[in-house]
Structures are given as C-alpha cells and as structure tokens.
Amino acid sequence: MPYSIQQFQKMGRHFYLPNTMETSVQVNIHKTATDAATRFFQLKILYNFLPPRKRLKIWGIAESAECHFCFMESESTEHLFWYCHVVSFFWRDVQRIKFPT
C-alpha cells in the first residue's frame, strides 16, 4: 500500500471505495505527484478531509464560515477549488506559468 495512503489511514480516516475505483485513484495520484506530502494532500482533498471554514465554524474554531478569499459564499472544499472566483485567478496564473502559450 502506498505510503501516503498508510499515513491517511493512520490518522483514523478510513474510506471505502470499490476496489477498482480505489486502485484507479491510487494509480492516478502516484502519476500526478512525486512526493509523499503532495500525494497526502491530494488524498485529503479527494476524501474531503481538509477542514474548510464551514467545518471550522461548526467545530467552534472559526468565527465565520464565509470564504476567506471572496467573502461571498460558505467556504467548502468544493467552493475553494472549483467555484471561488478569487481563487480561480490564482489557478489561471498557475496554469500560465506551468503551461505557457
């Protein structure tokens, strides 16, 4: 079993995917990242283990559940990585740097 998944499970996070899907996820994570820390971060995103402000508010850690960047919506993992218009500028810049035209 890959080191990053062992670390994920060590934290008490157990996920249940069909064997074929779990194998596919493991293979793709190992294709997209070369270091264990990045793979571990990808697993946290994939299995919804990153604590966005929405969850921190529920736990009583954050005062507000609003997105830290746009202050327009509740901050969830989905919002941060796919829907936040402010963060989308960051990803656009990363794409330009990584894949210049």
What does the model show?
The structure is a single chain. By secondary structure, the chain is an all-alpha fold. Helices cover 59% and strands 0% of the residues. The chain is flat, with a radius of gyration of 16 Å. The protein has helices at residues 3-10, 19-32, 36-46, 53-58, 77-83, 85-98. The longest helix has 14 residues, at 19-32. The chain folds into 2 domains: 1-49, no CATH class; 51-101, no CATH class.
Identify the notable features of this structure and list them briefly.
101 residues; 59% helix; mainly alpha; 2 domains
Structural class designation: mainly alpha
Indicate the percent of residues in helices: 55-70%
Order of helices and strands: HHHHHH
- What's the mean pLDDT score? 77
**What count of domains describes the coordinates?**
2
Largest sheet: none
Low-confidence stretches: none
Total strands: 0
Distance between the termini: 39 Å
Oligomer class: single chain
Indicate the overall shape: flat
The radius of gyration over CA amounts to: 16 Å
Number of helical runs? 6
Strands, helices and their partners?
Layout: H1 3-10, H2 19-32, H3 36-46, H4 53-58, H5 77-83, H6 85-98
Short characterization:
The chain is mainly alpha-helical and about 100 residues long. It has helices at about 5-10, 20-30, 35-45, 55-60, 75-85, 85-100.
